[in-house]
């Protein structure tokens, strides 16, 4: 049987990270990884059994090609518009890993990257119209006014074509303020079937009060959503489909690299739920995928189904690849 087809759309960046404990200002070495929310979701979902395509716009340079090569390594199909402008650029971010009491620091350099100019008209449409599900995060419309319109057109086109549309609020305060985000996101949610949102973002950005179950039920009703998944940090996550709710605690893990954990959670959930697993089973897989990601360096969850199965079986001392 052909696996479900998932398409994601969004920005990818180069992550330049210092070796552990070294400040940016003194290090002579930077480790390079490819990262980005929607790409991370595609990687986790692909590695757990879906057919994933990542759509974006990249500079037509070796730097842009590095991104597509990285995704192909994980089996993800990059469907990319190449930016031929002389000043085309890929966003980057610098990560200075810290340890208590000195926290980690992230410095972005992503302004005017190629993705910010991506219009729906120039993107390939087949990945959206032929997919079983299409995923975008709130990071994408936060990057430019152009991407607000592109995101809306992608979701409405996908929904009209019969795809399940998935949106992760994924609020970033360094990209926009809560009021601007709320205005844009509430307009986008009319074309969304499945919503992922952190409880803190539901409160601070969307202005929904109450516990996770109350927030999920209210969002479900107000935006006519098919499914709402609310993450609650160390308390785990809750999903509500209009009739019943399911809760999943986190799996304990030693954190090596937390970046990309939320994306791994979404990818793990979709890999199970889109293959007709129950919501509780999908939540369980998503929690295990997120826990595994925290043990892996880089942005992407470089995992295999056997590793997730070992976590779910409680065989944490003999994780199978």
Automatic annotation (TrEMBL):
UniProt EC number: 2.7.1.45
SUPFAM superfamilies given in the database record: Ribokinase-like (SSF53613)
Signal sequence bounds: none
Record flagged with keyword Kinase: yes
Top-level lineage group: Archaea
GO molecular function (one): 2-dehydro-3-deoxygluconokinase activity
Keywords recorded for this protein, A-Z: Kinase, Transferase
Residues of the Carbohydrate kinase PfkB domain: 9-299
InterPro entries reported in the protein's UniProt record: Carb_kinase_PfkB-like, KDG_KDGal_kin_Halo, PfkB_dom, Ribokinase-like
Matches recorded under Pfam families: PfkB
CDD domains linked to this entry: KdgK (cd01166)
Family that this chain belongs to: Belongs to the carbohydrate kinase PfkB family.
Protein name as annotated: 2-keto-3-deoxygluconate kinase
């Amino acid at each position: 049987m052909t696996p479900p087809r998932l398409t994601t759309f969004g920005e990818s960046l180069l992550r330049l990270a210092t070796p552990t404990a070294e400040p940016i200002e003194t290090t002579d070495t930077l480790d390079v990884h490819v990262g980005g929310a929607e790409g991370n979701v595609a990687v986790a979902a692909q590695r757990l059994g879906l057919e994933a395509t990542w759509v974006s716009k990249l500079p037509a340079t070796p730097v842009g090609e590095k991104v597509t090569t990285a995704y192909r390594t994980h089996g993800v199909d990059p469907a990319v518009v190449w930016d031929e402008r002389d000043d085309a650029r890929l966003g980057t971010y610098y990560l200075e890993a810290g340890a208590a009491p000195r926290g980690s620091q992230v410095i972005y350099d992503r302004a005017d990257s190629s993705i910010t100019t991506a219009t729906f008209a120039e993107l390939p449409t087949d990945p959206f119209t032929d997919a079983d599900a299409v995923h975008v995060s709130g990071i994408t419309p936060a990057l430019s006014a152009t991407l607000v319109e592109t995101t809306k057109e992608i979701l409405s086109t996908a929904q009209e074509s019969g795809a399940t549309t998935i949106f992760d609020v994924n609020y970033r305060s360094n990209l926009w303020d809560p009021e601007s985000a709320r205005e844009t996101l509430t307009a986008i949610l009319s074309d969304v079937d499945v919503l992922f949102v952190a409880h803190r973002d539901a409160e601070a950005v969307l202005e929904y009060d109450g516990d996770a179950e109350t927030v999920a039920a209210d969002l479900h009703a107000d935006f006519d959503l098919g499914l709402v998944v609310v993450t609650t940090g160390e308390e785990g996550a809750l999903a509500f489909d209009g009739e019943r709710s399911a809760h999943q605690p986190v799996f304990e893990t030693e954190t090596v690299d937390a970046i990309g954990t939320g994306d791994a959670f979404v990818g793990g959930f979709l890999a199970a739920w889109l293959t007709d697993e129950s919501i509780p089973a999908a939540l369980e897989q998503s929690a295990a995928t997120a826990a595994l990601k925290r043990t892996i360096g880089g942005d992407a969850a470089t995992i295999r189904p056997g590793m997730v199965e070992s976590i779910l079986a409680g065989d944490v001392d003999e994780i199978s690849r």
